[in-house]
Fold these 2 entries.
Entry 1:
Amino acid sequence: MKPAPFEYIRPRSLAEACALLAGDEDARAIAGGQTLVPMLAMRLARPAKLIDIMRLPELAGIRTEADALVVGATTRQAIAERDPLIAAQVPALARVLPWVGHPPTRNRGTVGGSIANADPSAEIPLVAVTLGAEIMLATPDGPSSMPADDFFIGPMLTVIAPGECVSAVKFPVWQHKRIGVGFFEVSARRSDFAFASALAQVALDEDGRCIDIALGVGGVGDRALRLDVSPLLGTRLDAASVAEAVHAVAADMEASSDLHASASYRRRVAMTLGKRAIEQARTEAGARPLKGAA
Amino acid sequence: MKVELRVNGVSRTADVEPRKTLLDTLRENFLLNGAHAGCEHGVCGACTVLVDGEPVRSCLIFAVQADGYEITTIEGLAPAPGELSVIQDAFCETHGLQCGYCTPGMILSAHALLQHTQTPSREEIVEAISGNICRCTGYGQIVEAVQFAAARLQKSNVPPQHAGPGHPGAGHDAPEEGVLEAAEADAPTEIVR
């Protein structure tokens, strides 16, 4: 037994879980546990209480709302990876999930857990930030929510307060007919932590002009970043325009440096991956049939 | 804390501290030593077991979290005491193991894969065992073992048990105290080609 002793509590309702989390600052929520349990095993975390939220019905399930897909916090990554609704409505999430950990960790790890953990190189927070998802929170005072961009504040840091937990992630669903996704990452080994990653989602009109675009990079700074490439709207996403737009916004972005990769390397890789991601997204969108076109 | 677990098709109870992992509980309380303790923090995959038919790391789940799931260990794969499952036999045939430490995890990961697909590509096999580290073989013969097992299963006329969560990988006559049974049963058996 490597972890320090703790008390294990499985509340019956979300309200009870929030009360337990609010009542003891040494209490931690556990769901899939794929990041928390290694921390416990290495005694980097020593909570007095573990509040198991995995089986709370309020946190489960995937449902559609107007222009959005709400993915319950305890949705297993492996379930999300195979979910037809996610594949159809939030293709960016479906695209990155095979890159999250390994099959055995995805079978236990949850979508909400990856969000709450806020690893700067994690793929699910990158999707949330890039698409401008809304993070739904359960608090002792009832439900609340905030944009992903405000939720993540640094490496493994979020604005989440004691007594709160992520209840769901509300991903926007683009309504355009021709949508494409591009994703690339560079890591030491497949499924290891990314030194840099880039995710793009584009929508094209019938003429192949860009009518909507989102680009985000992960692993570069201390959190996932959405980059403003709005100058590309209305263009055909030709290589020169894409390069110009990506360089303009990414050439001087903050980047972290460690023994795996220098800041300069991370920045350069992120720019290259960003360009490739947009190109891949454009190609995918361009291959979609022109439904409703004459 | 008292926990009631379903392991290899049998209901078992244990009195464990909350901090006791499923891995330690399987090994120490139930004497199912086939799940190996390697890194004990979720990197190596030696402790892989099946939970509702899907591979998970038993060092990253506490026994108190594991009630209500159908847990399958390597001891639960063989059709009967003294026999080997098709995948276990394929690992022997192709020399898919040397020291054997990673082997139970490899076989359970492969078992879950072959429940989902009868004709896995090499890439699918590599992905399926990507969470299991082997320091001896270099993986080539392990991949070969899974391909060999897949080919045999296709010819075996046994319909894939398959289908998603809820599948208990174990037969009803799986050995109760796996490691002891396995030791007794280490007699030569005729290999059907």
Entry 2:
Amino acid sequence: MPPRPWRRLGEMIRKEFRQLRRDRRVVAVMFISPLLQLLIYGYAVTTDVRNVRTIILDRDATPASRAVADALTASGYFHLTGYARETGDLVRALDRGSALLAIDIPRGFARALADGAAAPLQVLVDGTSANTATIASGYVALIASHAADQWGRRQAFAAPAVAFDPRVWYNPGLEARIWYVPGTAGMIIVNLCLILTALAVVREREEGTLEQLLVTPIRPLEIVVGKVVPVACVVMLDVLMVTVVGATLFHVPVRGSLLAFGLSSLLFVIAGLAAGVLLSTVTETQQQASMSMALVMMPINMLSGFMFPITSMPQVVQWITLLNPLRYEIDVLRGVFLRGVGFEVLWPQFLVLAVMGTVLLVIAGRRFQRTL
Amino acid sequence: MRTPTLELDRLFAVAAKEWRQLRRDVRSLLLAFGVPLQLLLLFGYAISWDVRDIPTAVFDQDHSEASRALVDAFRSAGYFHVVRQISTHTDVNRALAGGRVSAVLVIPVRFAAALQSGRPAPLQLLLDGSDANTATVALGYANAIVASWSPGARIAVAASGVQPETRVWYNEDLESRKVLVPGLVAMIMMMIGSLLTSLTIAREWERGSMEQLAATPIRPREIVLGKLLPYLGVGMADVAFTVALGAVLFHVPFRGNPLTLVLGSLLFLIGMCGVGISISARAKSQRLAVQLSMLLTYLPGMILSGATFDISTMPRVLQLVSWAVPARYYVIMLRGILLKGVGLADLWLPMLAQIVFAGFALSLALTSFHKELA
């Protein structure tokens, strides 16, 4: 006698693949969407502050004030949109948004410098982009002080007290994009797993075909496994595609073990699929499923450390992030791609991912059987 | 006898039916308000771009009074959280590679001696660049701390030099959440508009109820507009809900004219729902409709609208592309109205863009839908 359960499962998987293949547009979107996400994150999302639109009002018009203004524009952080003639120009530029930063060098700036008094410099920042504003105004302070220092040192020679030598490891160019590529892979896994699985199950329930399936000898567990296997295949293919495209297009280094990357992705995919099945058991229609997904996806993405540093979050929220599987996947991706480490360092993350996947699988399986 | 191109009775009948269906699905409706609430709490309390408490290790090889003073300066600035002391070079590698710390401050031997003899004292900071944003900010803070630190004085006040007096406008205390709320309103509108609406017509096709509708004398444009109305209502209620919640929870100001906000939001929402309905009518399957609406509206909208990321730091090409994203104009308008308090005189361009977008999307929706059964 042939092993019956495997044949039933095989038939179920074949049915799902056939259904998927019939809707070619869905398959196309499944591959275009991650690619587009990768390109957008890779090219668009830089939190580096460069070319901040700046307007300068130089009331002092002395060599010293010009030296400061020149140092600011030469730094590359600021893009000078023009010189203002009066305060009104500064206000208008900020109001209209044509400048994010307005620098007002008051009269007596050079004299104050020469006297050794604190030379005042007014900086107006458009706070509506808080991140850029914080960083940019910090740069103004640094560059202006440095420029004035150099200017003053022409008269009296003085060496700086500390020779500061900061070095950035793993990403010396401080390029955001080489991190966003592996990060996007992690995010794509969770998003696709959740929505594709949930919709695949809910649709059968909504259309009433789930009941037809149930009267066949196939077991509920086999239905679930049959539904998630094609999704898992698509998602793993997506991960492969994103990694290859990212590595070639954005020169993302792969310094650690690819085996660790593959294994963690697999564990994470399993957890994501189980979560998708779980989501399908608490929703009745596809509309509900997609709205619930929007509700679940946001915290998972935002509290993962992908874009927002976890160490800056309030302590309570930091504890909550410990329950987020994406957090561990992000840890693994950062480690493997950028820091070049493997199992020897990342084994706790693997352990957590495996435990989370198992727990989610058990809960999802139980709930699925009960909701039938 | 002349038949009117649009019969309001029929339109309202469809709207009433759609509204009843929406109301019956209490959970979807709850989610329509639950999502904004959750996003507000998430962005307001949990996450921010601010970088604080960077986990830092100190490798002090000098063990002098000066080196301890420097570590204190780093510690008291509030940006670096010294979590451990390191005593060997291999530990430096291990700490950074393991991801336990993001920065290591290395103070070499003879740091104090160099300071005393007037030579530049060597000092090294190693940063984990795998999170480029945190590393950039940390670098800036470290430079500032070292520049303002002088070995003699504990409280570093440079008597000479420039004293920048920075004033931040529109968001005086530089709280990222105040800036994020206007962006959130736009994101929520995109979600309601595209996600919720994109399913409506596809659902009727999938369930076969479209055939029943086709048998009635109702015209396609009456169906489209009738389906649009209830979602417009939900969307506008969401705008009011989010803005009010932002004001109560985070004291986000409302400095501009409410009427401008209503008008702009209505136009944006018409555009968004129009896109959602066009997707829905063309896709005819809910699975495809959800994916397409995420792909076409939500994803570019979230990133290229300026809601979460600064557009001015993006490459030139993408900055140009972002002008084709309707949400970008809506975000400019929201920030203008809520934070800057400017009126139509400054916002005529985004308003015009909204009108064009709404008109375009609406005509797209009206032409996308035919009653013929395949």
